[in-house]
Amino acid sequence: MKLRPIGGIVLRQMYLMRTSPARILPMFAWVAIDIVLWGFLTRYLNSVTAARVDFVPMLLGAVLMWDFFQRIMHGVTTAFFEDLWARNFLSLFATPLTRAEYVTGLVITSMLTSLIGLVVMLVLATAVFGLSFLAYGALLIPFLLLLFLFGVSFGILGCALVLRMGPASEWLIWPIPALLSPFVGVLYPMSVLPGWMQSIGWLMPPAYVFEGMRALVSGGPFDGRGLAFAAALAIGQVLLAGWVFARVYRHAVRTGLLARYSAESVS
Question: pTM of the entire structure?
Answer without folding.
Answer: 0.87
